[in-house]
Amino acid sequence: MRVPKSARSESNSPDTPGHTAGHISLLDPSASVLVAGDAINGSSGGVVGPNPDFSEDHTQALATVAGLVGYGFETIYFGHGEPVMSGGSALVTQLLRDY
């Protein structure tokens, strides 16, 4: 389901294209939670980047990872993989460094 941009706040649902053109994530700054959807994935207690086999635009998907670094969050829920319950922003920053 697409949520019209006029009905959402950029700070609460940042655009995270790459997996699909209209992909968004959900951010709750007060709870320090990011619902990443398919922008990034969980693996073995950490974070892995977008899979090129499942990205409409892998270059954009990687740019999305860089954009997530600007948000502060501890917890991440993914479309795939176990959630990260603490240190989420640091793990995304490290993921970006590893690319």
Structure notes:
The chain has a single domain, classed as Ribonuclease Z/Hydroxyacylglutathione hydrolase-like (Metallo-beta-lactamase, Chain A, 4-Layer Sandwich). The protein is 22% helix and 18% strand. It has 2 helices and 5 strands, in the order E-E-E-E-H-E-H. The strands form 2 sheets. The protein has a 3-stranded mixed β-sheet with strand order 1-2-5, with no helix packed on it. The protein has a two-stranded antiparallel sheet with strand order 3-4. Helix 1 packs across helix 2. The termini are far apart.
Offer a quick outline of the entry.
By secondary structure, this protein is α+β, with helices and mostly antiparallel strands. It has 2 helices and 5 strands; from the N terminus they run ββββαβα. The chain has a 3-stranded mixed beta sheet, with no helix packed on it. Strands 3-4 form a two-stranded antiparallel sheet.
Write the layout of secondary structure elements.
Elements: E1 26-28, E2 33-37, E3 41-43, E4 46-48, H1 58-68, E5 75-78, H2 88-98
Parallel strand pairs: 2-5
Antiparallel strand pairs: 1-2, 3-4
